[in-house]
User: What shape does this take?
Amino acid sequence: MRQAGKHLQGAGYVVEEIMPPDLERGVEIWHQIITTESFHGLWPQMQKMGDPDGIAAMRSWFEVKKPVDLQTYLTAHTEREGLLFRWMSFLQQWPLVIFATLSDLPPKQVSDTTAAGQAQILESMSPTLMAPLLGLPGLAVPVGSHGKLRTGVQIMAARNREDLCLDAGEVIEAAEGVVKPIDPAKA
Assistant: This one.
């Protein structure tokens, strides 16, 4: 994230390290809503038509994050609206938010098929869940590397401000140079 910040500062952006509102609670809300919806909607179909690794990964997800009851689900939706208001207010002062796409190295393939692996991945990607929870635009771009593995950031902005994400992403990509794809199985 700091490398992305340096790229943006070099292009004239003002960069401050500050935490947006209620990040941890937002992640909890995302899990309450999406786990419950997926359990009742996607999971039955996944069990019929999904591949074995996909089924195992989803089963592991439900072991780590349980679906909630109707009252908790409805409360989470209501709470999400208040959180969106706080984020939109925050984004008026700080129009872009940059998070690491993962707070750890990219996971090995199929590590999400166990509860322990799934828990680690969900924890690592937790900040990036705010964009889908709140309906905010998000753009992921590669920044830096660890050996052969690329690391990256997610750029988020207020609703209908995809242009800000794209502009910042263009600055970061230009500073990082051409990224060559790798075979993730060999990384």
